[in-house]
Backbone:
């Protein structure tokens, strides 16, 4: 077994639902990210990419037919480069990174590109096929943008509740208040806007050809808890979750290059971080927001690292309430400071294009470790239907 390293990482700006990226097909978004990340390893002959592993949660529209392979072809890579598309819902591109690291560590590949894409704007409506030919009644279309559709009637109703209702249950069980959620959401916007203003994302984010979008479109400068407090609950009349303290619907793509230590010469660049540990966990579907607690713990145990050694955390903010619950649990396990979590903003502000978010948190984590001189960091993401993934990165250049 050999170690796997992260060599390069980029993403597109994340666009709002119906916003600047609405006219861009997801396979074109994927190709943009794939081409851009390979430009970060200029010495590599693109024919020497052993595998492309791509994440996508929807795959019901223009992202069908193995969108990872479509990205390879549209980006102009040789037809000899193989690709696969994986679907672990919100964790799809983080799953792609983990699978890529395993390919490297087992010796099955020396250079792998991982990434993911989602166009929630362009996700189609779908119709079920009828049980018999020529039905006379009406048929209802189902949106594939987010959440359950065409549900199996054998599935327990409590497991197929909306994502928001599931997190209202988390709020009820943890006692996390609306005010706490709004404060967390405002922090996400403030830190994301600050990070962009300070140039942190300049090297991580690449433009989409033909689109005038310089930064993430969902960030709202000047958002305050007081402004967010005026929004109505979205899922329960007396609930705590609003459009302001949950992640929005978005479009975007991310891509990363992983390889062996010996691949550095072929790539023409030094590694950014080592993949030190991985974790995958599952729980009750309605409690998916809490699953990162154990996923991160599992990744740390496999890395031989404790929470006290962690200097940066990137947690995908699906909802403020589940993010707060995860941070509270990690503090009890030894995380030394809650401010280490999402110090450059999170998905509530930046956005959450499902299949691309895992790549975003890994890329941001690696950049933070190097910028701050920290050695170990954790990236984690909750996944609908009761799952989570996490990875531990090590900055071997840290003092």
Residues:
């Amino acid at each position: 077994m050999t170690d796997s390293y992260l060599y390069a990482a980029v993403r597109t700006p994340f666009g709002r639902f119906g916003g600047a990226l609405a006219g861009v097909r997801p396979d074109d978004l994927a190709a943009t990210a794939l081409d851009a990340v390979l430009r970060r390893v200029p010495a590599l002959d693109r024919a020497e990419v052993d595998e492309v592993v791509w994440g996508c949660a929807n795959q019901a529209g223009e992202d069908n037919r193995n969108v990872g392979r479509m990205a390879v072809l549209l980006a102009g890579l040789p037809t000899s480069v193989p690709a696969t598309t994986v679907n672990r819902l919100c964790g799809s591109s983080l799953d792609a990174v983990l699978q890529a690291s395993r390919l490297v560590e087992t010796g099955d590949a020396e250079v792998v590109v991982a990434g993911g894409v989602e166009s929630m704007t362009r996700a189609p409506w779908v119709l079920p096929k009828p049980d018999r030919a020529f039905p006379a009644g009406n048929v209802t279309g189902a949106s594939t943008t987010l959440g359950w559709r065409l549900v199996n009637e054998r599935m327990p109703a409590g497991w197929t509740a909306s994502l928001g209702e599931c997190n209202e249950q988390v709020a009820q069980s943890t006692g996390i208040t609306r005010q706490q959620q709004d404060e967390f959401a405002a922090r996400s916007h403030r830190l994301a806007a600050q990070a962009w203003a300070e140039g942190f994302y300049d090297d991580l984010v690449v433009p989409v050809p033909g689109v005038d979008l310089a930064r993430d479109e969902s960030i709202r400068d000047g958002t305050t808890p007081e402004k967010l407090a005026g929004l109505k609950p979205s899922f329960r009349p007396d609930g705590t979750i609003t459009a302001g303290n949950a992640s929005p619907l978005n479009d975007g793509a991310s891509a990363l290059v992983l390889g062996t230590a010996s691949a550095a010469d072929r790539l023409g660049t030094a590694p950014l971080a080592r993949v030190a540990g991985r974790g995958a966990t599952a729980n009750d579907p309605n409690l998916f927001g809490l699953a990162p607690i154990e996923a991160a713990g599992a990744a740390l145990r496999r890395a031989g690292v404790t929470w006290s050694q962690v200097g940066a955390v990137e947690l995908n903010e699906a909802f403020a309430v589940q993010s707060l619950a995860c941070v509270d649990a990690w503090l009890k396990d030894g995380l030394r400071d809650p401010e280490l979590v999402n110090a450059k903003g999170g998905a509530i502000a930046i956005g959450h294009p499902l299949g691309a978010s895992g790549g975003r948190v890994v890329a941001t984590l690696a950049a933070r470790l190097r910028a701050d001189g920290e050695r170990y960091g954790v990236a984690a993401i909750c996944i609908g239907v009761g799952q989570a993934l996490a990875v531990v990165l090590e900055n071997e250049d840290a003092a």
Observations:
- The first helix runs from residue 26 to 38.
- Residues 27 and 70 are 6 Å apart (CA to CA).
- The first strand starts at residue 5 and ends at 11.
- The radius of gyration is 20 Å.
